[in-house]
């Protein structure tokens, strides 16, 4: 698989400037950062959450974890981790675990952790486990224009940058 068609269309319609960074197959965002030789704080990962109102995408640095209590307080929603089978259905054109951050393109409300807004550039999954999209932070923030910016993540203790 290459870039997801949904992401490709989203990038095209927004006129985003980006490049593709190829890397050896990886299983996790931490592995991806190492394999692609990119700083983990600049690699955005997407976590899909759900509640009785539907699904949301939470986008945060790969060096961080979602603090659900913060997200609950800021959204008023009691979100929990979505099931793997649901993610396969929601992101049909992506490999499981290689979800792009453009949740709105997949019909989901998206929350963007503020830590990513302070980076000079951002990398994120293109829809498979061997390619990243790379763009400067202004392009990324324009792409994520419909995402709500909130602080909901905390740095993992064992992760280096």
Automatic annotation (TrEMBL):
User: Pfam families annotated for this entry?
Assistant: tRNA_edit
- Domain of life of the native organism: Bacteria
Q: Which SUPFAM superfamilies match?
A: YbaK/ProRS associated domain
Report the GO molecular function annotations.
aminoacyl-tRNA deacylase activity
- Name all YbaK/aminoacyl-tRNA synthetase-associated domain ranges: 23-141
What InterPro entries does the database record attribute to this sequence? YbaK/aa-tRNA-synt-asso_dom_sf (IPR036754), YbaK/aa-tRNA-synth-assoc-dom (IPR007214)
Instruction: Point out the coiled-coil segments of this chain.
Output: none
Name assigned to this protein: Deacylase
Natural source organism: Trinickia symbiotica
Q: What is the lineage of its organism?
A: Bacteria, Pseudomonadati, Pseudomonadota, Betaproteobacteria, Burkholderiales
């Amino acid at each position: 698989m290459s870039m997801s068609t949904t992401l490709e269309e989203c990038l095209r319609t927004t006129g985003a400037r980006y490049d593709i960074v190829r890397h050896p197959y990886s299983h996790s965002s931490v592995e991806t950062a190492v394999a692609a030789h990119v700083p983990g704080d600049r690699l955005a990962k997407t976590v899909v959450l759900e509640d009785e109102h539907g699904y949301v995408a939470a986008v945060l640095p790969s060096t961080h974890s979602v603090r659900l209590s913060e997200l609950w307080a800021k959204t008023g929603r009691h979100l929990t981790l979505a099931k793997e089978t649901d993610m396969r259905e929601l992101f049909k054109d992506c490999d499981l675990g290689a979800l792009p951050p453009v949740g709105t393109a997949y019909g989901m409300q998206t929350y963007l952790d503020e830590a990513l807004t302070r980076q000079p550039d951002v990398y994120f999954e293109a829809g498979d486990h061997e390619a990243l999209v790379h763009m400067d932070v202004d392009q990324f923030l324009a792409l994520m224009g419909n995402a709500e910016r909130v602080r909901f993540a905390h740095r993992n203790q064992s992760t280096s940058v």
